[in-house]
């Protein structure tokens, strides 16, 4: 599908096959805008979505954490959850985790689309069900933000539609001579360990948790007492002054970890135990000194650190 700008200029195509991602050996010679696309770890905040040619809106608090190796946790909390209803029953809620990769168009007939890339997100865990994968074309804006354009199912209509999402970064914080910045280290990823011979099967659940700098998100899927699939999610942020917009709310709660003031988003649907991990090892992963291979058992599920970047 071809995609055109407002003045009729051709911007590219949606859903076309892309060449492989650049290897580390070639990354050093890429133009800066391509390096910006490939920069990991990354912290992304969605500011709005538009379906078809309708005006954009935002009814979620969406944060995506992506590790250096491309693992990601994407949690989309409804801005106004309905009291008394399970989080997962809200149509605006969506949470998923998996692997992402980014590629660029090869020059064709002497024409290429600069400041654009193609991103594919394979969902290993998804609150909406298995087998979901989405992809979109990304367009880098002069201010460093990004527009994502693609096709996916509109939860309001159930039909596949053109969408446009606006992505930015979290608020920068001052603190050194280099001016405001967003802290992206350490980056720590832990995943559940398979407890059965089948590849990818976890008897008591399947989950992932990622900490990047001052942000941490985790997701776990497992059967409840009735055998129904249950999706649990957590979002945490280290905000010494309580100013972090990603988790700020009067009902947010605080846990002191390694001298940091970590705030748990009040919309998280795990048990509100601020001193011990109840389902997802977020408190543990927000501590210091982790190395690949470290393990912890939480509620009968073994989690293992698979990536560390300081």
Helical content band: under 10%
Structural domain tally: 2
Average pLDDT, to the nearest integer? 82
Instruction: Bin the strand percentage.
Output: 35-45%
Summarize the biggest pleated sheet.
8 strands, antiparallel, barrel
| Assembly of the depicted chains | single chain
Strand arrangement, major sheet: 3-4-5-6-7-8-9-10
Assign an overall shape: globular
Radius of gyration: 20 Å
Pfam family, one: HRI1
Region (Disordered): 1-25
Protein name: Protein HRI1
Organism: Exophiala mesophila (Black yeast-like fungus)
Q: What's this, in brief?
A:
InterPro entries: Hri1, Hri1_N_sf. It comes from Exophiala mesophila (Black yeast-like fungus). The protein has 310 residues and is mostly beta strands.
What does this molecule look like?
The chain folds into two domains: 30-168, no CATH class; 187-309, no CATH class. It has helices spanning 24-27, 32-38, 282-285, and strands spanning 2-4, 10-13, 42-51, 60-66, 71-78, 94-103, 116-126, 133-140, 146-153, 160-168, 187-192, 206-212, 215-223, 229-238, 253-257, 260-264, 295-298, 301-309. With 310 residues, the chain is mainly beta. Strand 12 (206-212) and strand 13 (215-223) form a beta hairpin. The model has no long low-confidence stretch (mean pLDDT 82). The N and C termini lie far apart (41 Å). The chain has an eight-stranded antiparallel β-barrel with strand order 3-4-5-6-7-8-9-10. Strands 15-16-14-13-12-11-18-17 form an eight-stranded antiparallel sheet. Strands 1-2 form a two-stranded antiparallel ribbon. The chain is globular, with a radius of gyration of 20 Å.
